[in-house]
Amino acid sequence: MSFLEMLLDGMGVELKPVAEIGELVRGNGLPKTDFTESGVPAIHYGQIYTYYGLSTIETKSFVSVETAKKLRKVDTGDVVVTNTSENLADVGKAVVYLGKQQAVTGGHATIFKPNPYILGKYFAYYTQTEEFAQQKRKFAKGIKVIDVSATDLAKIKIPIPCSENPEKSLKIQSEIVRVLDAFNTMTAELTAELTAELSMRKKQLNYYRDKLFNLEGGEVKHMPMGHEEIGLFVRGGSLQKKDFTETGVGCIHYGQIYTYYGTYANKTKSYVSPELAKKCRKAQTGNLVIATTSENDEDVCKAVAWLGNEEIAVSSDACIYKHKLNPKYVSYFFQTEQFQRQKRQYITGAKVRRVNADNLAKILIPVPSQEEQLRIVNILDKYELLISSITETLPREIELRQQQYGYYRDLLFSFPKSERVVV
Q: Which residues fall within 8 angstroms of residue 19, CB to CB, at 6 or more apart?
């Protein structure tokens, strides 16, 4: 508060309706089918809450010159605000356009063209505050689709410091924007730093995993995975997502292997009834469950080692590998380039990619001693633990910074109540 009082330097704050601090222009048209590879910059309302941040100098999309002639124009410094969304939080989201070339926007969006004494960024930052959210709730209409019209947006009141002194007002707005920009930059830099570290650690893991499995020499045999001395592939049974229950017998659906599970698991995400489980193929402790179908080459043949104590049901489009090796060792092998290189020659299908159990049985795996398998597993487990720690830290740190940013943003717009003049 002392910071705000210092900024105001004894001058007042006036709550003004949006209609009095700028012009509101309702967008029209612009379905996604109008998008082109290049042309006139275009901002689609849906992109404001899925792609853009607070401001942008470039647009994600473009339209032809002919189409642009029919659309509302967005000039540098204008703010494009969403009028419609499936939830209240996204309605009223704003992006300031700072590009040099005039842009266009379409329906379900309103262009706010600020008066000379209002900064577009100041207005956009205010649309993120709890005060703005409380006001827009009063005007929100609809159930499945929430709408705040341009007419109602015009009624929302914005705190304008030193409105009687435009130059002073702009300086105060600029200082508030500067502080919030600094918070945004700090959050972005932290995110980039953590993301870069995560990427580096993943590359290290891939490098050492491939190196550890590069077992050559007379003492280490490379044997077909389906060799009778090593293991057997068993196809999964008929199990679909609609069969899932809240409790019962644990099960692994093939799609979950590349969306939910990691190298190994001792608990399942889903369950099926005991009656259905009796009809399903089951994996025991130590078995691998492998997705034999996917929409891309990378995910096909992803595997998870089942380390739980109970038998679990396995869906079709997956197979069970029953073997005599260290379960984690085999699961880590499935992640190596050595395995991927062999797998590629057996992939079939166009839109849906498959590798059948018979071909999986032909893939060669290095078979060192149990002691060596355990040594490799222990090394890779340490790397996975580190990566898991960074992966968990990343969203937590980002959330913490966002909460911190939100706190100070709301504080910076909480001008002393005694200084406010309600219109």
A: 154, 155
